[in-house]
Amino acid sequence: MPNGRSIISRHVIGAFGSMLLLISSASAGPPAQLYGKTVHVSWHEDELSRSVGQQNFSRSGGGHLKHLIIYISALGRPFVRRWNATGAGARGVNEQVGGSGNGNYGGVRAAEFQGRSLLWTAASGGGGATRVQIDFDASFGSCTAGLIVGKEAGASTFFRQGGKVEVQEVSIGAVTCSIEEGNAFAN
Question: Which of 109, 114, 155, 181 is the most exposed place for a label (fewest CB within 10 A)?
Fold first, then answer.
Protein backbone atom coordinates (compact mmCIF):
# COMPACT_ATOMS: atom_id res chain seq x y z
CA MET A 1 0.00 0.00 0.00
CA PRO A 2 1.34 3.45 -0.78
CA ASN A 3 2.30 5.73 2.10
CA GLY A 4 2.58 9.49 2.49
CA ARG A 5 -0.26 10.73 0.30
CA SER A 6 -3.62 12.34 0.79
CA ILE A 7 -6.14 9.55 0.76
CA ILE A 8 -9.48 11.21 1.40
CA SER A 9 -11.40 12.54 -1.53
CA ARG A 10 -14.99 12.72 -2.64
CA HIS A 11 -14.50 9.48 -4.57
CA VAL A 12 -12.84 7.31 -1.91
CA ILE A 13 -14.54 4.46 -0.17
CA GLY A 14 -18.00 3.36 -1.32
CA ALA A 15 -18.10 -0.26 -0.32
CA PHE A 16 -15.46 0.31 2.38
CA GLY A 17 -18.02 1.61 4.89
CA SER A 18 -20.21 -1.43 4.29
CA MET A 19 -17.21 -3.72 4.69
CA LEU A 20 -16.69 -2.48 8.25
CA LEU A 21 -20.14 -3.63 9.23
CA LEU A 22 -19.48 -7.16 8.03
CA ILE A 23 -16.98 -9.02 10.16
CA SER A 24 -16.16 -12.15 8.27
CA SER A 25 -16.92 -15.31 10.18
CA ALA A 26 -14.74 -17.16 7.68
CA SER A 27 -11.58 -15.26 8.58
CA ALA A 28 -8.75 -17.37 9.91
CA GLY A 29 -7.33 -17.07 13.39
CA PRO A 30 -3.86 -15.74 14.03
CA PRO A 31 -0.96 -17.84 12.74
CA ALA A 32 0.79 -19.78 15.50
CA GLN A 33 4.06 -17.97 14.67
CA LEU A 34 2.52 -14.77 16.14
CA TYR A 35 1.37 -16.30 19.44
CA GLY A 36 3.02 -14.48 22.33
CA LYS A 37 4.12 -11.55 20.13
CA THR A 38 3.16 -7.89 19.85
CA VAL A 39 2.80 -6.01 16.56
CA HIS A 40 3.34 -2.23 16.58
CA VAL A 41 2.15 0.08 13.77
CA SER A 42 2.70 3.86 13.91
CA TRP A 43 1.87 6.70 11.52
CA HIS A 44 1.26 10.44 11.37
CA GLU A 45 -2.08 11.89 10.31
CA ASP A 46 -2.66 15.51 9.36
CA GLU A 47 -6.28 16.44 8.95
CA LEU A 48 -8.26 19.34 7.59
CA SER A 49 -11.01 19.62 10.19
CA ARG A 50 -13.13 21.89 12.32
CA SER A 51 -14.98 21.66 15.60
CA VAL A 52 -18.72 21.44 15.07
CA GLY A 53 -20.09 24.98 14.95
CA GLN A 54 -16.95 26.55 13.47
CA GLN A 55 -17.21 28.02 10.00
CA ASN A 56 -13.75 27.27 8.56
CA PHE A 57 -11.70 24.10 8.30
CA SER A 58 -8.05 24.26 9.38
CA ARG A 59 -5.02 21.93 9.43
CA SER A 60 -4.42 20.03 12.64
CA GLY A 61 -1.07 21.79 13.10
CA GLY A 62 1.76 19.28 13.13
CA GLY A 63 -0.52 16.28 12.85
CA HIS A 64 -1.30 13.45 15.19
CA LEU A 65 0.94 10.48 15.92
CA LYS A 66 -1.18 7.30 15.89
CA HIS A 67 -0.21 3.93 17.36
CA LEU A 68 -1.86 0.56 16.85
CA ILE A 69 -0.58 -2.16 19.18
CA ILE A 70 -1.82 -5.74 18.78
CA TYR A 71 -0.75 -8.50 21.15
CA ILE A 72 -1.57 -12.10 20.20
CA SER A 73 -1.86 -14.21 23.36
CA ALA A 74 -0.45 -17.72 23.77
CA LEU A 75 -4.00 -18.92 23.05
CA GLY A 76 -4.26 -16.89 19.82
CA ARG A 77 -6.54 -14.16 21.15
CA PRO A 78 -5.81 -10.62 19.89
CA PHE A 79 -5.67 -7.67 22.30
CA VAL A 80 -5.71 -4.30 20.56
CA ARG A 81 -4.91 -0.77 21.73
CA ARG A 82 -4.98 2.29 19.49
CA TRP A 83 -3.93 5.66 20.83
CA ASN A 84 -3.29 9.12 19.49
CA ALA A 85 -0.68 11.63 20.61
CA THR A 86 -0.33 15.33 19.94
CA GLY A 87 2.13 17.88 21.26
CA ALA A 88 0.07 17.84 24.46
CA GLY A 89 0.48 14.04 24.86
CA ALA A 90 -1.90 11.11 24.56
CA ARG A 91 -5.45 12.26 24.01
CA GLY A 92 -7.41 9.20 23.04
CA VAL A 93 -7.18 5.46 23.68
CA ASN A 94 -9.35 2.64 22.32
CA GLU A 95 -8.92 -0.91 23.56
CA GLN A 96 -10.37 -4.15 22.24
CA VAL A 97 -10.19 -7.73 23.48
CA GLY A 98 -10.83 -10.40 20.86
CA GLY A 99 -11.41 -10.08 17.14
CA SER A 100 -14.08 -7.36 17.23
CA GLY A 101 -15.71 -4.75 19.42
CA ASN A 102 -16.96 -1.17 19.53
CA GLY A 103 -14.91 2.00 19.86
CA ASN A 104 -15.42 4.83 22.33
CA TYR A 105 -17.87 6.58 19.99
CA GLY A 106 -19.84 3.60 18.72
CA GLY A 107 -17.85 2.59 15.66
CA VAL A 108 -17.15 -1.08 14.95
CA ARG A 109 -13.55 -2.29 15.41
CA ALA A 110 -12.38 -5.58 13.91
CA ALA A 111 -9.08 -7.47 13.58
CA GLU A 112 -8.98 -10.41 11.19
CA PHE A 113 -6.24 -12.54 9.70
CA GLN A 114 -6.13 -13.49 6.04
CA GLY A 115 -3.12 -15.64 5.20
CA ARG A 116 0.01 -13.59 6.01
CA SER A 117 -1.98 -10.37 6.47
CA LEU A 118 -3.79 -8.83 9.42
CA LEU A 119 -6.57 -6.39 8.59
CA TRP A 120 -7.71 -3.99 11.31
CA THR A 121 -10.72 -1.81 10.57
CA ALA A 122 -12.32 0.87 12.68
CA ALA A 123 -15.43 2.88 11.91
CA SER A 124 -15.54 6.35 13.46
CA GLY A 125 -19.23 6.13 14.26
CA GLY A 126 -19.67 9.29 12.17
CA GLY A 127 -19.38 8.12 8.57
CA GLY A 128 -15.59 7.63 8.47
CA ALA A 129 -13.34 4.61 8.79
CA THR A 130 -9.70 3.54 9.04
CA ARG A 131 -8.33 0.31 7.59
CA VAL A 132 -4.80 -0.85 8.46
CA GLN A 133 -3.29 -3.75 6.52
CA ILE A 134 -0.28 -5.45 8.09
CA ASP A 135 1.64 -7.85 5.85
CA PHE A 136 4.08 -10.34 7.40
CA ASP A 137 7.11 -12.01 5.84
CA ALA A 138 7.08 -15.80 5.46
CA SER A 139 8.59 -16.34 8.95
CA PHE A 140 6.32 -13.77 10.64
CA GLY A 141 9.49 -12.09 11.94
CA SER A 142 8.98 -8.73 10.23
CA CYS A 143 6.11 -6.70 8.83
CA THR A 144 5.09 -3.80 6.65
CA ALA A 145 1.88 -1.81 6.95
CA GLY A 146 -0.26 0.60 4.99
CA LEU A 147 -3.55 2.27 5.71
CA ILE A 148 -6.53 4.10 4.31
CA VAL A 149 -8.79 6.62 6.03
CA GLY A 150 -12.05 7.16 4.20
CA LYS A 151 -15.60 8.39 4.33
CA GLU A 152 -18.94 7.23 3.02
CA ALA A 153 -19.47 7.37 -0.73
CA GLY A 154 -20.71 10.78 -1.81
CA ALA A 155 -19.96 12.44 1.54
CA SER A 156 -17.76 15.54 1.65
CA THR A 157 -16.91 15.09 5.36
CA PHE A 158 -17.11 12.63 8.24
CA PHE A 159 -17.19 13.04 12.01
CA ARG A 160 -14.79 11.94 14.76
CA GLN A 161 -14.82 12.18 18.54
CA GLY A 162 -18.50 11.46 18.93
CA GLY A 163 -19.56 14.05 16.36
CA LYS A 164 -17.49 16.87 17.89
CA VAL A 165 -15.00 17.16 15.02
CA GLU A 166 -15.91 17.33 11.32
CA VAL A 167 -13.12 16.06 9.04
CA GLN A 168 -12.82 17.02 5.38
CA GLU A 169 -9.44 15.51 4.45
CA VAL A 170 -6.75 13.31 5.99
CA SER A 171 -3.13 12.94 4.85
CA ILE A 172 -1.07 9.97 6.02
CA GLY A 173 2.67 10.22 6.66
CA ALA A 174 5.18 7.39 6.85
CA VAL A 175 3.87 4.14 8.32
CA THR A 176 6.16 1.89 10.39
CA CYS A 177 5.62 -1.69 11.52
CA SER A 178 7.57 -3.89 13.93
CA ILE A 179 7.15 -7.15 15.86
CA GLU A 180 8.44 -7.91 19.33
CA GLU A 181 8.42 -10.99 21.54
CA GLY A 182 6.09 -10.86 24.52
CA ASN A 183 3.12 -8.87 25.71
CA ALA A 184 3.61 -5.09 25.31
CA PHE A 185 0.65 -4.50 27.62
CA ALA A 186 2.32 -6.34 30.52
CA ASN A 187 5.30 -3.96 30.61
Answer: 181
